[in-house]
Write a structure and sequence with these properties.
8 helices, flat, about 280 residues, 2 domains, mainly alpha
């Protein structure tokens, strides 16, 4: 019975997320304020359904469902959704929800394309550190995904302004200053969670394998990703990296995040590869 509910919940998540993206896109083109509010409410509904889906997998499996590709991608989509909603609670950035809803939908479609089977939990993963380390790390990726979307929006708006033909995107995207502030906020939050994820992972590794660091491929790429964002944050604070340079770096950093999550698993393997 619970497995059937779990199956229906994921299908509901897909359907509601698709509707949210569709309404956001209609709003993006038509700019009818009423649709923006409707789209945000639907996205909130998607976030709630994602939460229920993750909880249902937890009840079935008996452990934090973040150890397979499907679970990791779903958790990633969940973190992007709620990172955006928490961001929107404090800041308002024009049409940001359109880009976020499309990213969430893409992640969920990827999650739907891989196996949803439950796998026995490996002995090394049977620890209370699993939800702490994995959860904090994926929350970091959620905020860094916001920074990535902000970077895309910045480059689109800058290109529009440089062309001196203020057209489609100019009237629909925020100012370059607002997008740069968005990048700064999301980078700071994401880097903080990323650091906590690496620290908790090192402590867990010490308990599980007797060493804080093994230079496993995923550990190595996590460190590379951390350095990319550390350099960006350092340069922003010390020498004033702003604007296009910061936007490009947020995109490069997120590409490293994606490779750490999936590229390493399929190309390099290692002890951190998912349950497959």
């Amino acid at each position: 019975m619970l497995s059937e509910i779990n199956y229906l919940l994921f299908n509901s998540v897909l359907a509601v997320s698709f509707v949210a993206s569709a309404v956001y896109l209609v709003f993006f083109f038509g700019q009818q304020e009423r649709l923006r509010k409707v789209a945000r409410m639907i996205l909130i509904g998607s976030g709630i359904l994602q939460t229920l889906y993750i909880l249902s997998r937890y009840l079935i499996a008996g452990y934090t469902p973040i150890t397979s590709q499907h679970e990791a991608i779903t958790f990633f989509a969940w973190s992007v959704t709620w990172a955006y909603l928490s961001f929107h609670w404090r800041y308002s950035v024009r049409n940001f929800g359109t880009f976020i809803s499309l990213l969430v939908l893409i992640l969920l479609l990827v999650a739907a394309s891989v196996s949803r089977e439950f796998h026995p939990l490996a002995p090394a993963l049977q620890s209370l550190w699993l939800p702490v380390h994995a959860g904090v790390s994926v929350m970091a990726y959620g905020f860094l995904a916001l920074s990535f979307c902000g970077g895309i929006m910045y480059l689109l708006q800058e290109r529009e302004l440089k062309s001196k033909k203020l057209g489609f995107f100019f009237s629909r995207l925020p100012s370059l200053e607002s997008l740069d502030q968005l990048n700064s906020h999301c980078l700071t939050a994401g880097f903080t969670f990323l650091t906590l994820g690496m620290v908790s992972g090192s402590i867990w590794a010490r308990q599980a394998w007797g060493t804080y660091w093994q230079w496993d491929p995923k550990e190595t790429w996590s460190l590379i990703t951390w350095f990319l964002y550390a350099i960006q944050l350092h340069q922003r604070v010390t020498v004033g990296w702003r604007g296009k340079r910061a936007a490009v770096m947020s995109i490069v950093g997120f590409a490293s995040v994606l490779f750490t999550l999936w590229g390493v698993t399929y190309l390099l393997g290692g002890v951190h590869s998912y349950a497959q």
